[in-house]
Design goal:
The complex is a heterodimer of chains A (325) and B (290). Chain A is mostly helical and 325 residues long. Chain A has 13 helices and three strands; from the N terminus they run H-H-H-H-H-H-H-H-H-H-E-E-H-H-E-H. The chains are: A mainly alpha (325), B alpha/beta (290).
Chain lengths: 325, 290
């Protein structure tokens, strides 16, 4: 049974292994170059007063590695590829070719057949996704230190989350294949589900994994004030800012219209916007997730996707148990 | 060894709202070759899949080799199954398929399987997809026989084969039966070749069993009666299977065990093919006790 699993899925293993290896080799090459911009570590180049060397390094980072963010956003489909290419043919290929009748009438009961396949291919999925995210976590290290780890090009590709995404894609593709009985439509359905759930979780659930912290303070004369967005600092540039805004001196929130009106008034009076706000006792606030919550958030995110994967696989097990094929 | 290799009681299978098989009670004697005959869509494949444990019944029960049909390793190891169109992993070599047989079975007679394939000049290093249809069927048969099953179930094994491959397949199958003495159950909708190979017959029509029995018995119990044309209600005794009318004559297929014919009527024996066809032509829902 183990041999059969290997023989049937080795093409996917080679192809996906090669994909992860190629990404790893490329990131290693450009990553070493990027890491060498910060001989003493990027940690020395944070804060407001930068040394000459740090300014140069950061400028070169932006010039020479500015494509990194776009590239990494593209890579967020890699966990899908890993999981779905293992999952889609797992059941569907047997149903398409009629070989299920051969496979499940040997002396291996179908539940055991399923357990071995899900176990082996699920493990391969998690392993490949784990290697992938380990490489990216290493590659992004200077960027993490400078920009934080909560951006879509960081959080979605580092730590545990990619393994969770890949397992979810694996389960979705397996379940779709078991229901639709075709590999290719299963792949398409899994992609739709993957994108929908990823967007929903990242945009809607993730900011609320823990209650946000809130800072409120009087607008200072020298602050960089903006009409809708006070750009108030949380004290740590690695924190994840969720929302920010202004309230008047009584604590009522200022609408965009109110602040726009104040801005024109400040223009008319010829004073700086921030000074105008300061005079009227306007307060600025920011809601944020502190940087040190990164691993808690990773854990929650991974648990959500692993839980969804488990539910989908339970559906597959249920269909197998009922012997509906 | 039980007398019946297979026994079903009120067996039925429903897919959503349509019944693929209904109220099927029959038994298949041990050590015999039984043919399951019926038109396409009669429920043959469903029945066979229920027997080998690929499907779970909606109603009724199946008992295979003295035990309820399940998919435990022990139950599976006693059954060999050759599905319709003999599905194989097309990109596996024949040798790899044999390895699948070895690694997925409690007992697998690799030597027997290899010997069969060598006798047929089927190269072991060839991919299954590159073999002819007849050779693929032979590989599938060798894999099923390699399990040394007590019950061999074949679903339309020759449907997709050309006449030469068909003959070769039958020879291989009968050779194996002669060697091993296992029970064989196979489905077919091609009647002529049955007579040569099987000794028990089950006719399935409209998802129900219409007739079942030993072929010799069936042929003695049934006969054709030819007499003057009449359209009166002929089936008073319930023995008429089918009545056909020509311009001047009426031909009846009766199952009366050879009772004396009415005056003016001539009796003659019936061939297996005519007998099967008569049962297959029966309209839905008319049941004849086996």
């Amino acid at each position: 049974m183990t041999w059969l699993t290997w023989r049937q899925h080795r093409a996917e293993m080679y192809a996906l292994g090669l994909l992860v290896a190629a990404i790893g080799a490329f990131l290693l090459a450009v990553g070493l170059q990027m890491h060498s911009l910060f001989p003493g570590g990027a940690g020395q180049c944070t804060g407001i007063d930068l040394t000459e060397a740090c300014s140069t390094a950061i400028r070169r980072l932006n010039d020479e590695h500015g494509y990194a963010s776009k590239m990494l956003n593209l890579f967020s489909l890699v966990p899908f590829l890993i999981g779905a290419f293992f999952g889609a043919p797992l059941v569907a290929r047997e149903l398409e070719a009629g070989t299920w009748q051969f496979a499940w009438t040997q002396s291996v009961p179908r539940m055991r057949w399923l357990a071995v396949k899900l176990g082996a291919l699920g493990f391969a999925t998690a392993l490949l996704a784990g290697v992938f995210s380990a490489v990216i976590t290493w590659y992004r290290q200077p960027m993490d230190v400078l920009d934080g780890r909560f951006g879509a090009d960081a959080f979605d590709l580092e730590g545990l989350a990619p393994a969770g995404y890949a397992l979810f894609a694996f389960a979705a593709a397996t379940a779709a294949g078991a229901v639709l009985r075709r590999s290719l439509p299963a792949l398409a359905v899994a992609l739709g589900a993957f994108l929908a759930v990823r967007v929903l979780v990242a945009g809607w659930l993730r900011p609320n994994y823990q209650d946000t912290q809130r800072l409120v303070e009087l607008v200072a004369v020298g602050d960089p004030a903006d009409v809708g967005n006070p750009r108030m600092s949380t004290g740590n540039h690695l924190d994840w800012t969720i929302a920010s805004g202004y309230t008047d001196s009584a604590g009522r929130p200022l609408s965009l219209y109110d602040s726009a009106a104040m801005y024109s008034a400040a223009e008319k009076e010829g004073v700086k916007f921030s000074a105008y706000l300061h005079e009227r006792g306007v307060q600025q606030w920011v809601e944020f997730q502190p940087a040190e919550r990164f691993w808690t958030f990773q854990l929650v995110e991974t648990t959500i996707f692993a839980g969804l994967a488990a539910a989908l696989l339970a559906l597959v097990v249920w269909r197998f148990r009922r012997r509906v094929f | 060894m039980t007398e019946h290799a297979l026994q079903t009681d009120g067996l039925g299978k429903r897919y959503r709202r349509t019944w693929a098989l209904q109220d099927c009670s029959l038994s298949v004697p041990s050590g015999r070759v039984t043919a399951l005959v019926g038109p396409n869509g009669a429920g043959k494949s469903t029945f066979l899949r229920l027997v080998v444990g690929l499907l779970a019944p909606t109603t009724g029960s199946v008992e295979v080799l003295g035990r309820p049909a399940t998919d435990t390793p022990q139950a599976l190891s006693r059954i060999g199954f050759l599905a319709q169109d003999h599905p194989l992993y097309k990109h596996f070599t024949v040798a790899e398929l044999l390895r699948v047989g070895r690694s997925c079975n409690l007992r697998f007679d690799q030597e027997l399987a290899e010997r069969r394939l060598r006798q047929l000049d089927i190269p072991l290093d060839r991919k299954a997809g590159a073999l002819s249809g007849g050779q693929q069927a032979q590989v599938a048969l060798a894999l099923a026989l390699g399990k040394r099953p007590d019950l061999l179930v074949l679903d339309e094994p020759m449907a997709s084969l050309d006449p030469v491959a068909r003959l070769e397949f039958l020879q291989a199958l009968m050779g194996a039966v002669a060697e091993d003495g296992m029970t064989v159950l196979f489905s077919s909708h091609v009647v002529p070749e049955l007579e040569r190979v099987c000794d028990h017959l089950i006719v399935l029509n409209h998802s129900r069993v219409t007739v079942a029995g030993d072929i010799d018995d069936l042929l003695t119990e049934h006969r054709l009666l030819v007499g003057p044309r009449t359209t009166a209600d002929l089936d008073r005794s319930g023995t008429v299977v089918e009545a056909t009318h020509s311009e001047r004559h009426t031909t009846l297929l009766v199952r009366d065990g050879g009772a004396p014919a009415a005056p003016g009527w001539q009796a003659s024996p019936v061939g297996l093919e005519d007998l099967v066809l008569s049962y297959l032509r029966q309209p839905a829902r008319k049941e004849v006790a086996a």
